[in-house]
Amino acid sequence: MKIKKLIVFNFKRFSFIEINFKQNINVIVGDNESGKSSILSAIDLVLSGSIHKIETLGLV
C-alpha cells in the first residue's frame, strides 16, 4: 500500500493540512511541537480504524 496524499481537517494542532507524498522515501522534519507526530497519528488512525483511538482523541 502506498499513501499518495494526506488531507487532514481539525485534527490535533491542524485546522487543515494537505501533504502530497513523493514516490519513494518521505521525511517529516520540523521544530519541536510543530506537528510531526500529529501527522503520523493521523496516518495511524486512518490505517488502523481504531474506534478506541478516535474516542481517546475526543473525535466523536
In short:
The protein is an alpha+beta fold and 60 residues long. The protein has one domain (5-56).
Helix count equals 2
Approximate strand percentage: 15-25%
Low-confidence segments: none
| Strand order across the largest sheet | 1-2
Rounded to an integer, what's the Rg over CA atoms?
A: 12 Å
How many domains? The number is 1
Biggest sheet, in brief?
2 strands, antiparallel
Number of strands: 2
Average pLDDT metric: 87
Q: What is the strand and helix layout of this fold?
A:
Elements lengths: L4 E7 L2 E7 L15 H13 L2 H6 L4
Antiparallel strand pairs: 1-2
Write up this protein.
With about 60 residues, the protein is α+β, with helices and mostly antiparallel strands. The chain has one domain (about 5-55). About 30% of the residues lie in helices and about 25% in strands. It has two helices and two strands, in the order E-E-H-H. Strands 1-2 form a two-stranded antiparallel ribbon. The longest helix has 13 residues, at about 35-50. The mean pLDDT is about 85.
Keywords:
23% strand, 32% helix, alpha+beta, single chain, 60 residues, globular
